[in-house]
Amino acid sequence: DGSKEQDWIVTRKEMIRGGIAKEMIVVNGLFPGPTVHAKVGEKVMINVRNELPGNEGVSIHWHGINQRGSNTMDGAVGITQCAIPPGHNFTYVFTPDKAGTYWWHAHSGGQRVEGLLGGFIVYDSSQEKYTMGNGAYDDELLVIITDQYHDKFSEALARYTSKRSKGFEPVPDGGLINGHGKFNCSKLLTAKHRCIADADDLTEFILQPNKKYRIRIINASAFSDFKFSIDNHELEVIEADGAEVESKKTHYIPISSGQRYSAIIHTKQWDIGQFYIRAEMDDMNFNYLNLQLEPEVKAIITYDRNSIVYRITEFVKRETKRYKPNPSSKPWSELLQPEELVTIQESSLRPLEREEIPDADIQIVIYTKVMKLEKRNRAPFAFINRTSHIPAIGAPNLHVATNKINVSDIIPVPTITGGKNTEKWGGDQLLLDIPYGSVVDVIINNIDESSHPFHLHGYHFWVLHTFSPEKVNGQWYPDQKANYNVVNPIKRDTVNVPSFGHSVIRWKANNPGIWAFHCHMEWHMSTGMLMQFATAMENFTEEIPSAMIDHCIAERDLGPKLIK
Ligand code: C2O
Ligand code: CU
Fold first, then answer.
1. Ligand 1 pocket, residues with Cβ under 6 angstroms
2. Are 291 and 238 in contact (CB under 8 A)?
3. How many structural domains does the chain have?
4. Ligand nearest to the CA of 519
5. Confidence category of residue 460, pLDDT binned at 50, 70, 90
6. Which atom, in ligand 1's list, is nearest to the CA of 457?
7. pLDDT digits (tens, 9 = 90+) for 131-153
8. Residue that terminates a domain, selected from 125, 145, 171
9. Where are the alpha helices (DSSP H) in 321-465?
10. How many CB atoms lie within 10 A of CB 322?
């Protein structure tokens, strides 16, 4: 359908979203950007042209796409490529290997927070579009949830990392579904932002009665976890991060930044009006109260083209041009007793098909924490073990590893901690070598108040164990190996590591390349909660595209200016 070969132009554009006027970063004028539809085994070619003003580079990461044999296309700035400079373009070429719900977003600065993101759906080549292991459905919808900050990302980040910072991550002001929402302008505390209450409306989905829909949910937020539900419609979860799961009925799906789920909903037999889709922010990680915050993000389901409701609303729309959908549905929590409410847990999901889980050869233990550092003006930095990631300018690690840049050409970047291998890689980096074929356990000990959704590029991993403690000390200790689920663990690409708890993930290192592993909350990633695995590099055979090398030379020329 042509969507596998696309030309994308990245620009800035003022938009009114949720009633607030804001400059967004858009693809072909759109936020969210275009949804990519592809089949397993089909080549995707996306030519990204950077038309941002000033010196701002850009890159696109294809979140959850394994990039088997195409590490160079992974889009991670400082790791696999330099940013595409303004006025330049780069064509990402890769072949998805697994059906499911994925997404794409900028992987440079905080550009995804400014809107540079979209959906990416992969269909099985052997199946019809509307089937999955769990059965057929009639149609599907895509729900992309974002949290929104009225301020610019750069301003919010500067405040968060300033001398006077209390170390509290910026709390969003609200959220959007598929780029639309409502903000109560009377909540605004300052006149800094322009708010036009009627300038935006909730996203509305028109559904037919008596049908089965697959609803694909992406948490594309900068920071927030959400609790997702649809009034009066039970959700039957069938997919998590591209993995088919044994179906489970639920009222609420908790979803962390970077994660995706699919659920089947059955529309009712009769037309009974309009219902809210709700994504409620989980405020567990919010360390301060944002008085402007609208924590419930909504969209609307309207039944159906033949229904009385639909015909009346269409009529009103035509006659008055002032149609506003107006559901009166209630959240599940107001309809059911607390003990009747079902909320799925990440750790209770099971794969539809079991796999043989190999034993681990390598065990890596990491600790994650956000801390304020005396020698850095008391600004908060995010750590993995004793490193806080800062990439080298103009010297992505993949280019260093493949001798496309000399170590002596790396522009030094002041580091905080002297990360492992720093002399070789530049910046402040924790980068571990994993030989081809090794089975790796990574034990993520979260010694923070905040939970951290960890995402691995290039692989899907089994989640063997997640521990969410009652009390503060939930660190891993060797006896817990006995509790690992090596029978039917779920395989995904983003795991939420609970506050003061831990998760154990396992994967087999058979995809040559350097892959990022990081917290998906932009505030934590931007302040250093990122490490890398150089896996199976002895089998690496890719050529670095020459355009990428040119982009890095351009970045090194700018380098001294950038770090001044
Ligand atoms: Cu969705 Cu490295 O990120
Ligand atoms: Cu985090």
1. 61, 63, 105, 107, 258, 455, 457, 516, 518, 520
2. no
3. 3
4. 2
5. very high
6. 2
7. 666 668 999 999 999 999 999 99
8. 125
9. 332-335, 397-401, 422-425
10. 8
